[in-house]
Amino acid sequence: MASASAVAVLHSRQGVCTLDSQGTFLFLVERTEGRLSRRYMAVFSYTCVVSGWPSCLAVALLIFSTPVAAQQTSEPSEGHSTPSALFKKVIDNQEHGEKVLDQYERIQRDEALPPAAGDPRPAVTKVWRVFPTGAGVDKIPLSPEGKPAENYRSDLEKLEKYLAWIVEDGAGQKEAYAKAERKRKDRFELLEATHQAFIFTPDGEDTRGGRTLLRYTIKPNPSYRPTTRNTTIFTRVRGTIWLDQQTSQMAKIDGTVTDDISIALFLAKVYKGSHFMQERYEVAPGVWQATFEQYDFDGRKFLLTFSIHERTFYSDYKRVGPPREAIELVRTELSKLGPASGTR
Q1: Do 129 and 107 touch, CB atoms closer than 8 A?
Q2: Helix 171-191 to helix 83-101 angle, to the nearest 10 degrees?
Q3: Closest CA to 67 of 316, 273, 233, 242
Q4: Closest CA to 200 of 279, 82, 281, 292
Q5: How many CB atoms lie within 10 A of CB 62?
Q6: Whole-number percent of the chain with pLDDT over 90
Q7: For residue 57, is pLDDT > 90?
Q8: What are phi and psi of 278, to 5 degrees?
Q9: Which of 289, 290, 308, 288 is nearest to 298 (CA)?
Q10: Which of 28, 100, 130, 189 is the most exposed place for a label (fewest CB within 10 A)?
Q11: What backbone phi and psi angles, to 5 degrees, belong to 156?
């Protein structure tokens, strides 16, 4: 496995987006070290590789998934929590959900939507088995049908080797865990910056699967003044969030760019109207996680325009536990697969 790096990389079908500790955009991304990835709210750097930054900006709208405060704009109805109390529960649930996710594997399916007429790019589908490793995740490629791919056993052996390493008590392992915890701590601290940036306004109720969802609109706080050039993104997005009334869990988020956003010192731009959506369900008793994401972005990079329309499905969440438990599951699976081809 690759050693830890000072630069994080977000992979997408279009390219990669580099992230370092000098930027200040708050984005939910996948930090990739070799084949290991970790989802976390990170700081978006202006060193973004232009070919992949639209997908980085898409997930930026997920900042709304852990709102820090709500403005009381109407009297709460009887039996409902006040917005401030409700969103405090939402924050606690989101933080708990992130920690729990470190012990769950899942299947991730990325689909590029059918290209527009005349677009020469073919539609692309990629499927992974996403397996937690304690300080990150390992993404094992699967076939488009979700079956083991050609190098599946080899990939599983690499995962077993890494898990055997991460459970040891050495300097490298401590640094890997410390790095993951620093990123988690930074994410929660950075979320506090949204306290003054947004207003959450009650907007009625909806029903999904027999459950009541409280709907809130999200809009920039007109009195908020960005403290850096990067936090101006908070003034250019708005949307709607749905919260499960019974559990105070986020069930859905829908966000839209309301004004063009320039990136990388104006070398690239996301156009007004670009859109992102995520849905979340209870995937295990008391465990809510993302099951679907879609983003539709238009903009330009240098002098060329682009249009990206992709969606991601998450399914088959299964608890594998911390590395000491997970490694036994991997070893059991390897034993059932039999010896590698060409060996006796």
Answers
A1: yes
A2: 160
A3: 242
A4: 82
A5: 21
A6: 40
A7: no
A8: -135, 140
A9: 308
A10: 189
A11: -65, -35
Rounded-to-integer distance, Cα 164 and Cα 158, Å:
10
What global pTM score does this model have? Answer: 0.73
The token pair that represents 94 in the structure block: 């989101």
Cα 165 from Cα 25, distance rounded (Å): 33
Rounded Cα gap, residues 323 and 329, in angstroms: 10
What are the start-end ranges of the E strands in 36-152? Answer: 36-44, 104-112, 125-132, 137-142
Give the pLDDT confidence of 62-104 residue by residue, as tens digits: 433 333 333 333 333 444 444 567 777 887 888 888 889 999 9
- Give the residue-averaged pLDDT of 243-258: 92
Which H helix or E strand runs over 96? helix 83-101
Structural tokens at position 176: 């890997």
Neighbours of 244 (CB within 10 A): 21
Distance CA 321, CA 330 (A): 12
* Phi/psi at 50 (5° precision): -60, -30
d(CA 117, CA 327): 47
Which residues are within 8 A (CB) of 120 and not within 5 positions of it... i.e. 6 or more apart?
Answer: none
The CA distance from 87 to 249, in Å, is: 9
* The two structure tokens encoding residue 192: 């506090």
| Partners of 140 in beta bridges | 129
Contact present, 338 and 130 (Cβ < 8 Å): no
Distance, CA of 246 to CA of 265 (rounded, Å): 45
Q: Provide the b/e sequence for 190-205 (b: ≥16 CB within 10 Å).
A: bbebbeebbbbbbbee
Which amino acid belongs to residue 57?
A: L
The distance of Cα 100 from the centroid of its chain, to the nearest Å, equals 14
